[in-house]
Amino acid sequence: MASLDKVLAKIDANLDASLGRLFKLISIKSVSTDPAFKADCAEAALWVAGELKGLGFEASVRPTEGHAMVVADAKASRPDAPHFLFYGHYDVQPADPLELWETPPFEPRLADTPTGKQIIGRGVADDKGQLMTFVEALRAFKETGELPCHITILLEGEEETGSPSLPGFLAKNKDELKADLALVCDTSMWDRKTPAITTMLRGLVLEEVVIRGADRDLHSGMFGGPAINPIHVLSRIIADLHDDQGRVMLPGFYDGVAELPEDIAAQWRHLPFNEKTFLGDVGLSVPAGEHGRSTLEMLWSRPTCDVNGIIGGYTAKGSKTVLPAEASAKFSFRLVGAQDPDKIAAAFRDFVRARLPADCHVEFVSHGGSSALQLPFSSDALTRARGALREEWGQEAVLAGCGGSIPIVGSFKHDLGMDTLMIGFGLEDDRIHSPNEKYDLSSFHKGTRSWARVLSALAG
After folding, report:
1. What is the pTM of this model?
2. What is the share, in percent, of the chain residues with pLDDT greater than 70?
């Protein structure tokens, strides 16, 4: 295996050529949501597979009921080398509205900005630039010697449409895809100078409640008072879900919710995060949620219960004096730690039933759920990767949480029994899914160097 210094030097020397390859991938209009771009998605899959074959991988394009998967594999010469599965996606969001783009979205360009050179184009940050940092790191290893570890690559073309083909594909190919650890590069840095490893993902429970009263809508003048109003019933249930300290009142809701380790809590407290600016940017000023918890705690390591929508009665223009026959609401619960999605859903339904008055009936509709995920803070892989990132950036990597959920990471854990190391080089202002999407050239370059360091460190 070549020395790491030679690999890093090759990455530096390859930058212009690497950028040209990224531009080619961006120019392929792999919009997965629109059938008009089906051929473009197929072209992107073939292009990526061809690049990996050129690096000595056994690579193939695997058809699915939707867009194809790309699977590639290359072993290291060391029989005891660790095995890693890298995941990314080659599909992108639609470019609409086209009139808001300064230049055509699939004609990538470099732009000089006050923060440095930036690559502009649809999909450059989500996820083509990110996945190419990993591919270009592999290229440098191959051009100076050999890979430090056994690498399997899985690239899908449906991430932007909810990955409908992925669960079945994982189930059919689990023996081929199972590795010691999964690697994902679809997350962000803390800021332009500080890398981050996403160690926590919140889980999710989605429930819909429909409460019915009378057998039809009623005139409020003729029935108001004696007739039950499902909107009133639903409103009281929603109000009961939180106490005046912002805690969720479902029995057993906090079972499995652990406090942060003090060293992680201390790191978060010292991050340059401005709560006033965070809220001010969306027109708010006063933190809500659990009292006594910081904004980062609430976003990354605390569970939530939110009402996402309420429907009931007359909602068109003007007024209509009606008592509605039914009212409904959609709820989402973000989960952390060892919270059990099934138990949370059951507790929620029991909570609603216990508050249902006579003459009201309830229907529940589940929209799915998933557990929270956390890479152990004591993980050897986490320690090695954090050290590698420190070497490249000169800054300690933030061990960040993620308020949302990344379903593929849950699938890797539950279906393949693998933890996932999530290292990304995006920034909050990359405008992903928006016109004029961008990716810092330094993120692309140093991200490639970072992956070389991380793979070398993980290989031991």
Report:
1. 0.88
2. 100
